[in-house]
Amino acid sequence: YAVWWIRQSILQSLAEHSRIVRLPLNKIGLITKINKTYNRLEQEYQYDPSSDEVALELDTSSDIIEDVLKLSTHSMSVDAPIH
Question: Which pLDDT tens digit goes with each residue over 3-37?
Fold first, then answer.
């Protein structure tokens, strides 16, 4: 039982501190679910699934999938050095 609480605390801390711009936990959970589904479909069918295929698998609209995937891109700090 304690393992679940420890895992939950670690995941919540990572979600809050790993990005420059904080995302709500429900969005982070949806990003994780989309990525897992995308990877599973990619392994199963040996090609990159479309957002429509992922949406069908998750029983949601492809617009929601595309919007959430736009959120999942990482931001850069304006103080970061340019190479």
Answer: 989 988 887 787 777 666 777 778 888 888 999 99
Q: Apex CA 53: angle with CA 65 and CA 74, to 5°? A: 35
Q: Is there a domain that residue 76 lies in?
A: no
Number of domains in the chain: 1
Helices 25-45 and 2-17: crossing angle in degrees, nearest 10, is 100
Q: Is this prediction's pTM over 0.70?
A: no
Those residues whose C-beta lies under 8 Å from the C-beta of residue 5, and which sit 6 or more positions away, are none
Render 42-74 in DSSP notation, one character per residue. Answer: HHHHSSPPPHHHHHHHHTS-HHHHHHHHHHTSP
- Within 10 angstroms of residue 79's Cβ, the number of other Cβ atoms is 5
Structural domain including 17 reads 2-71
Does residue 52 lie in a domain region? Answer: yes
